[in-house]
Amino acid sequence: ALALVGGATIATQAPRPAAAAEPLRSLVPVPVSAQAVAGVTHTLSASTKIYTQAGSAPARAVGDYLAGVLRRSTGFPLPVADAPSQTPADGINLLLSGADSRVGDQGYQLDVAAGSVALRARTAAGLFGGVQTLRQLLPAKVESATVQEGPWTLPGANILDYPRFAHRGAMLDVARHFHPVDTVKRYIDQLALYKINYLHLHLTDDQGWRIVIDSWPRLATHGGSTQVGGGPGGYYTKDQYRDIVAYAASRHMTVVPEVDMPGHTNAALSSYAELNCNGVAPPLRTDIEVGYSSLCVGKEVTYRFVEDVIREIAELTPGPYFHIGGDEAHATNPADYQAFMNRVLPLVSKYGKRVMGWHEFVKTTTDTAAVPQYWGTTTSNETVAAAARRGNKVLMSPANKAYLDMKYNASTPLGLSWAGYIEVQTAYDWNPGAHVSGVGESAVLGVEAPLWTETIVTPDHIEFMAFPRLPVIAELGWSPWSTHDWNSFRTRLGAHGPRWQALGIDYYRSPQVPWD
Ligand code: TNX
Fold first, then answer.
1. What is the ipTM of this complex?
2. What family does the Swiss-Prot or TrEMBL record give for this protein (predicted)?
């Protein structure tokens, strides 16, 4: 029902060019280069086989994943076997040799010929990205969970593709409303479609603490016991969290855990009285105020607590980053904020992780390995520009462009609007490599689309806010700036509606997009 909200209908759209219906012209993110091979097609059949690089377990895993996707809708057996040689055999070939060097460690080459489909990359991550492109070259019904009628025809093509930015992320706030493991996995699968390679989990906030910390058990059992609106909340056991991390890894996605501090900590303060400067535990909060809580900077116990938390979460984290939050510390005075970060940032390094944080924190450090995540709404920010001058890489999440929790327009039933309304064109219309003055292309690590969940409760809600804007941010992070063109983009995006429908994704039918 939500998908019907939002105003205009297809009838108000200008007719779309017929050529755009061709899958090769509807890829999101658009590849670096994609040439049609006239007169050539490749049709999958009940005897199609998938061959993967002999001796490579990661390549085999990508082949098994592809087979899993295609078997559901085609009903074909699609056996997966070692590639007999580096010459593509009859069928779909996932090879770790022969790719153009420009593909780097995330890109791929995909050549669709009459006799074979050859996907080549230098890494399994590259093959995985290429598999997402391959899916988009098949009819939308390939995404269906049940067997459909073919034909399953791919257009003849030569594609060379690699990302503009190494880091393309999405954040899910599991603190304001708790989102169980299956919801997170479903979102991971949706993110993978658009070549997102980092999942940032906002694990703690005023309203909830969502992961077990063995040395401080009340964080989860008390701090996780409610959520915005007063519902029962929840938390991940360590095994559940490991399961999320492993599932993300199987989609070539790295989890970035966030423990927000020193502000946004009411759930922790409520769980342990000794963490409060006055020794009194406040009640749990289920409202959506921000900026009122702070860890007690002057107490030693604060740093024992923070070190235990960082150590236990770092142990669950194969990825390089630990996100310390650091935003909206309005209840921590600037000297205390500096003193807190002086103690805490080295703890992240001590446990082998690289610091990421909301951009405010970067004013407290000269460490050029620290990554500020820019969430401001303006195009100048001296703290972030100064960090870029020193050599820090910046992750771009401008709230008025990349925030998936902002309403599309005044009648959007979900979301907030403090950073403005974000219709699809607004989300598309910025250049991550030139958005903040003094933070140029080479200072940008990548982009992230955060989804705060004060108003977001169910998987349907997540999907309605993320689709179609998540693919927008994904394209800004992947595709060369030279391809940036709203009319081309919106037409390509419109072709994805039937794919989302087949996947059961409840998306916002923006009137700005000519939906197929
Ligand atoms: C600001 S953005 C916050 C979050 C809220 C969000 C709602 C940022 C670093 N902090 O605490 O959830 O706005 O849009």
1. 0.95
2. Belongs to the glycosyl hydrolase 20 family.
